[in-house]
Amino acid sequence: MVDKESPLPMYYQIEEDIKKRIDEGLFEAGKPIPSERELSEQYEVSRMTVRQAISNMVRNRLLYREKGRGTFVAEKKFEQPLEGVTSFSEDMKRRGLSPHNELLLFEKRKPDETTGELLGLEAEDVYYLKRIRYADGEPMAVEETFIPVRLFPELTEKIFEEMSFYEYIETKTDVSIHRARQTIEAGIAEKEEAEPLAIEEGAAILQIERIGYLTTGVPFERNISTYRSDRYKFISDMYRN
Amino acid sequence: MVDKESPLPMYYQIEEDIKKRIDEGLFEAGKPIPSERELSEQYEVSRMTVRQAISNMVRNRLLYREKGRGTFVAEKKFEQPLEGVTSFSEDMKRRGLSPHNELLLFEKRKPDETTGELLGLEAEDVYYLKRIRYADGEPMAVEETFIPVRLFPELTEKIFEEMSFYEYIETKTDVSIHRARQTIEAGIAEKEEAEPLAIEEGAAILQIERIGYLTTGVPFERNISTYRSDRYKFISDMYRN
DNA sequence: GTTATATAGTTGTCTATACCAATTTTCACT
DNA sequence: AGTGAAAATTGGTATAGACAACTATATAAC
After folding, report:
1. Which residues of chain A from 99 to 118 reach within 8 Å of chain B, CB to CB?
2. I want to staple A45 with a disulfide (CB 3.0 to 4.6 A). Which of A49, A88, A92, A147 is the partner?
3. Closest nucleotide to A50, Cα to C1'
């Protein structure tokens, strides 16, 4: 059930076990799970440890509590929740598609005025990337990315070939991604967009601008993606405040 | 500072006090707050109680923790956060625009197949609304809404003239809105869309479909909005999971 | 000066217990 | 059968302590 000797924390193992029991149908949606005291006996841990596991699951909306009544299994969420900030690669993977890149340009340059303002830069260089993004071998989007050189002095072309930029940040650096503001608009393909996307001029395109911020509050990227509207829809789950 | 005799929980009072200290500038963004042990002495509570307060604030992204280093004040959020599920009226208001409606159609009817499936209906009627949405007097979007009659048997044309549907749900009924899945795509205006929006055929339009769900997990609306892309951009804040 | 090494400080995990507040169940009384 | 009080059960709050894992700093060795 759970392993006291495991390097994984007990509360985490308990979370996974409860999730398993929900998947197996032992705990049903809308019905109560055993009480915290009962679970603490089953797992042979203190009640506070069970509470920590349950609290995490409540935060993730898998369970909800009612004082004096018990803890209940929430109605199933979207089969596959589509939340949060994701890179193109991550987005494609969760759609079941296989992403790949064609790097058209990679250089250091002075940012244009808009980019400089959005990234809070003063006379600093940015990396500029222009890429064609493919999904299952078909062109899906053209993407321009601006990244302040100061934040990631070691970036190379090779890194962008080998891994997702977000993956790089989260595994190879000690900073972390916090949030992003995305602006989505519809447009008409000019020659500049139509050609790399292999569509007609005058076709509809979906343009997404994303400004990404680190936990420190510092903006770390401006990303402008132009998607083929016949192949791509932007899907996201939101919650009522 | 905090009051042991207060009926408010200690951890809640501590949260409020830390927020106050951040507002007053005693704790600065990006810098560490005192350690949990230090705070537990200051407030004369156990460390676990301080941890509970801090954990809540971390969940709300006001603070972030780094193991072995400390707990830090997060950079201020967007001045005006653009999160969550909102109705057209709410969306316009937070953009500083004044919304108004033109109701083209309001009737009960059998849902088409797609709508029936999305709303999980079997041989049940829906309300069908078609509206032109204005912002500061200018046409902004045409909107079609499908709502199962069973969920809101008392709906009338008058209600939609007087208030926002979301406001109605939250103030006049005992159910509440939980979440929504939005699908955004770009398209080209046909005559049907161009005319009510007062744009040319062939212009770009932004189409947003929203399926809304109640806390019980039951879908309560399908909303299809077609926006003028020259006047409207979809803006949203997202967080990294 | 540079490099290991110890040390002190931080959050992370966990225990065992206690009492409170809200709800459900039990059961005696009518 | 119905009513109402008491008891049991549940999650909510809080304590006091312990050790682990990680980080930064001071110290000793080279």
Report:
1. none
2. A49
3. C14
